[in-house]
Amino acid sequence: MQTPNTQALKSTVRSVPFKLLVLSCAAAAIGSLAMNYTDSRATVGYTQICFKPTDPKILERAKKKGIQYCTADKRHWISDPILSDWERTESEFYNKLTRLKTLPAQTQSKWIYGAVAVIGGLSVAGLGAARLNLINRLVPGYRKEVQAQWHRDAVRNGVQMASDVIDGRKAVLNKQYRSEIDLARDQSAYLTPEEINAQIQEAELMQAQQQAYLQGQQEAQNVQVSQAQLPGQSINDVTNPGDKVKQSKQSQSLELGNAAEEVLNCIARADNSTVLVGDPGTGKSTITNDYISRVRAIYPDANFRVLAVKNDSFSGLNAEGKVTRFIGDDAIETANSFFTSLKVEYNRRLALPESERDKLTPLVVILDDWLSIAGALTKALKDKLLTIDYGQVLFDILIIGREYNMKFFANLHSLNLAAIGIEQLDSNTRACLNMLLLGNRYQKDGREVDAYKVIEQALSGNQVVPNQKDKDKLRE
Fold first, then answer.
1. What is the pLDDT of residues 180-191, one digit of tens each?
2. What is the crossing angle of helices 370-382 and 390-399, to 10°?
3. Nearest Cα residue to 380 out of 391, 368, 369
């Protein structure tokens, strides 16, 4: 979109007439300096001289012999620098010279060249300062236009993504509820007509309620689009913290509960591995249990393996014997067996032909309080007490295992991703790893506590959000 500020800035920077004017002034200044330096007429004077003895006796003898001095063929023009040199080095000869005429240094062109050079230089400096001043006055408006356009695009992209998610959920719900309706109809041989109609009506009612909820989410997103900056508005008109009316409208389109639900559902369905980072006491264990429940709901046949220090339930996995505890003197040996079994399962899946990959059940590895466990394993690996490279196992699951329905979910207390133990985790492989940053506000001992340290660190550093504009937007 070409706005007046954008067009003015481009015309100022790229104007051909302006550049030609500056080049002409510069050429005049440089040419005048060159002429001023090379014009020989303006540098020395000349004197017409001849040789005539001053001794009367010599003159008398010359007169008797008919010898004449200073005739036309004996007169010469000598430059003033040479005469000065003779005066300094050959004074006896110099005093016998007769000066007939003098031609002073011709300086009439010197001042002209000098004036043109000064005027040309001042013109170049003045034109450059004028353009710089104009650009400085136009750049703030141009910057606001770029920020406003970026804001509009970001909002529209976010709404489009939310719309795609909602459409996907609608399709899943349609398929799910239609299946329930069809199932109810298939059971008609065992149910009375009244029971069949009741089940069909119940399924259709649940579908209608869910569709209404999704429609409400879509309308909330449309409210956010309507608040996007329009031409002529300033960027502060969209997200002005002091505008209570606009703030209240914006809060309607951002329901934290619904947003968290969508994120966790996406993470549970994703093939990628995930790390959950949060301060102590922010609810990492709760999110981990919720993640396990969601994966089980989506994939009932999913196989879980948990490595943890705490003797928690892990959404019932502990009672099923799926939890390996990292405690006691044999903790290292236990971890060695845990990761060896993962490596064996990984190799087994890797050996399967491509036609059988789709039949593989999900294998999800839960790494609880992983920061403390990984520290002990790293030391044991250096001391050669651990016989398997657990970091390589996790790296294989992260990069290749996702194609074989394998992934891990680890919770950490810091943004130090190197603590995971994967040495090859660079900017490229990092793209295969989902990251959840957990921050919340809660009541503790009768006082309200804010726990957003991890999120603040993510916005201050470059590890999670490298782009400065994205950081500023997230801070707002």
1. 555 555 554 455
2. 120
3. 391
